[in-house]
């Protein structure tokens, strides 16, 4: 029997404009709303990310983070 899709957690998030635009585009292309798209990405995180590229991009994002907050 397939797992029932139920949104059980709600939390406020802050996103960059670029991140939000990409989320909206992905959700639209996938036929999902933004919450469903985030659920998909996190449920299948290991399958939809390249672990080597993820580490590189995470380090790059973190190095720019303080500058972006200003």
TrEMBL record:
Origin: domain of life: Bacteria
Name of the protein this chain belongs to: Uncharacterized protein
Source organism (scientific name): Sagittula marina
């Amino acid at each position: 029997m397939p797992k029932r899709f139920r949104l059980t957690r709600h939390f406020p998030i802050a996103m960059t404009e670029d991140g939000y635009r990409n989320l909206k585009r992905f959700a639209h292309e996938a036929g999902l709303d933004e919450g469903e798209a985030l659920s998909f990405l996190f449920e299948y995180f290991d399958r939809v990310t390249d672990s080597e590229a993820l580490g590189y991009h995470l380090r790059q994002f973190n190095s720019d983070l303080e500058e972006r907050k200003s």
